[in-house]
């Protein structure tokens, strides 16, 4: 995609995120210019979308320098110019200690905030010291932001790893600069949020933002209700979605994130068919099979066991499809140092084996599980080849995979099975095959129905989905967030007439 044009930030942009847009691998010994640097390009919706904006605005991106075991210390702040080809902006990487990472990332972020925001309160593990480390890492990021910020800066913080930083940043950068954040995961109801340790600190931290974005209205409303209940002195205007607290104003908005639809569409079409057939052959998938597909991080929110149960029921009830429908589950191992995640991965793999041993025949198995790395264009080609895509999370803030599938489906005759518990369902639910992931019978019936729906009807549904996904792509999402940022940024600046 031509990324030289597109949404622009109304000031000098400073992005803050846990993951970095580029990873540098240094080969061999450090002998000056001879040292080769391999750089992983940005992948994933957010980094791939924000990177070009940073390039156009010569911004700064501050992130945890994960994996860069050996920092290229060009200055004492660990800054590098990226991308290597054009050096358009500054990537500042924070070197967090092993203890800090264990407590801030694997602890408070992913053992407390992740489960609570997704409503899995029984999985919360509030270990001693994790919150204090979370605070200290948030402070470290805030200090780094202050190093780079000026009067015109727009600080845009991403996600739940940084609930405390906004207030510290607000207090340490010029008053005319703007602090905004996008919370990429759900915000829970007050009943669930009641179980959250450090609730007051978290809300006070988030209200340091001038603008706080969520994917859908429900999360924005939940947030405002939590503020009302937890901070009695906050003035909450539900209609305008504005909060005044401690002399600062925060505007809360809902803007559903999209994907780079044009690029998925193009990648899906561009892959040489022989690469796709060799992928199928290598994985023992008959070339003429109807292909079902699931693509997920191995995370307990994604409803993979529920999907497998529905597939098992489907094969029980529809023996005619044995041998002619194959379901590929592409899984990306995630947060594997956390035992809950290890157990989940093991359970999923065991279930796949069990179901396969029930139904497999000589040349066919019902479920092909792979956690091998797939290049972005191969993934798009696989989406395009899949007749049925199953997205069945128990809870999901948005779900970009559903949108990637639709964007890649240029043949427009595939069916999307989509859980009604995802943010994506609010816009795509009417023309997807809607499922409740916990209703195994209903889910299995939807798989059967999607397979027997006539082609013209699948096309009709898919063409509506494609319009929606292309209309609100990642550039639309960014442009909309930047419009909001522009309006709060204008409010911060002194009125020249007064
Ligand atoms: C979710 C979060 C992201 C996170 C991603 C991958 O989508 O909203 O912030 O980067 O999961 O998880 P990981 O822990 O590997 O960064």
Describe the structure.
The chain has 498 residues and is an alpha/beta fold. It is 43% helix and 18% strand. The chain has helices at 45-57, 98-117, 130-148, 165-172, 190-193, 199-206, 217-230, 261-270, 273-282, 304-317, 339-359, 376-385, 400-408, 425-428, 440-452, 455-471, 474-492; strands at residues 12-17, 23-27, 36-40, 60-64, 79-82, 89-94, 153-158, 178-182, 211-214, 235-237, 242-245, 248-254, 290-297, 325-332, 367-370, 388-391, 415-419, 433-435. The strands form three sheets. Strands 5-6-4-1-7-8-9-12-11-10 form a ten-stranded mixed β-sheet, sandwiched between helices. It is globular. The protein starts with 11 loop residues before the first strand and ends in a 6-residue tail after the last helix. 6-O-phosphono-alpha-D-glucopyranose binds at residues 19, 159, 184-185, 334-335.
What order do the helices and strands come in, and which of them pair?
Elements: E1 12-17, E2 23-27, E3 36-40, H1 45-57, E4 60-64, E5 79-82, E6 89-94, H2 98-117, H3 130-148, E7 153-158, H4 165-172, E8 178-182, H5 190-193, H6 199-206, E9 211-214, H7 217-230, E10 235-237, E11 242-245, E12 248-254, H8 261-270, H9 273-282, E13 290-297, H10 304-317, E14 325-332, H11 339-359, E15 367-370, H12 376-385, E16 388-391, H13 400-408, E17 415-419, H14 425-428, E18 433-435, H15 440-452, H16 455-471, H17 474-492
Parallel strand pairs: 1-4, 1-7, 4-6, 7-8, 8-9, 9-12, 13-14, 13-16, 14-15, 16-17, 17-18
Antiparallel strand pairs: 2-3, 5-6, 10-11, 11-12
Helix pairs in contact: 2-3, 3-4, 8-12, 8-13, 10-11, 10-15, 12-13
Residues 19, 159, 184-185, 334-335 line the site of 6-O-phosphono-alpha-D-glucopyranose.
